[in-house]
Input
Amino acid sequence: MNIDIKLHKEDLPDDLKLSDNIAIDCEFMGLNVDRDALCLVQISTGKNDAHIIQLNRETYNAPNLKSVLGNKKICKIFHYARADILFIKKYLKVNVENINCTKIMSKLARSYSDKHGLKDLIKEFAGTDINKSLQSSDFGGELSEKQLQYCAKDVIYLHKIYDSLKKILIREKRDNLYTNSIKFIHQRVDLDLASFTSDIWSH
Ligand code: MN
Output
């Protein structure tokens, strides 16, 4: 399968028209938001394409990207939005609007499984086995062709996964549970930023 990959330096191009339903993923230097920088933001419109934005880590000046992220009319599909929104909030300083998360959808829809990783969902809903071995690689410098392919694969399946999970949620009458749960995402990230990382509701 050939993915249409476009690498953009610092920001999305001025004249680029995306759809009103986009999949997003990010790559960081590591998982510690206080230490590790946000390096890449990948966007797919669901047509086997990936726009990979290599951010300027000195300025994080990316007005076009920020306007897409903050646009309420554009639906965004993340997988594990909690981590992406955390890094976006800290480094791009933008409030992302209209967020969906396939990991939260999966936890509510697929109570028959305890595996909610992206790899598991791609396997179940797209029938493809993806290689996650480049997940922990250096995204801070020049990107290899393999890294670009890896980053693209993290976004190109999300529309399909979202549609499949949505159907299950509706069929099982859990879509309201999901819609109300995802509203908590901003509060969850603010708790993370305030170092309340575990579940504050637990005993
Ligand atoms: Mn990724």
Notes: Residues 4-193 form a domain with the Nucleotidyltransferase; domain 5 fold (CATH 3.30.420.10). The pocket of manganese (II) ion is lined by residues 25, 27, 154 (CB under 6 Å). The longest helix spans residues 158-171. DSSP finds eight helices and six strands in the chain.
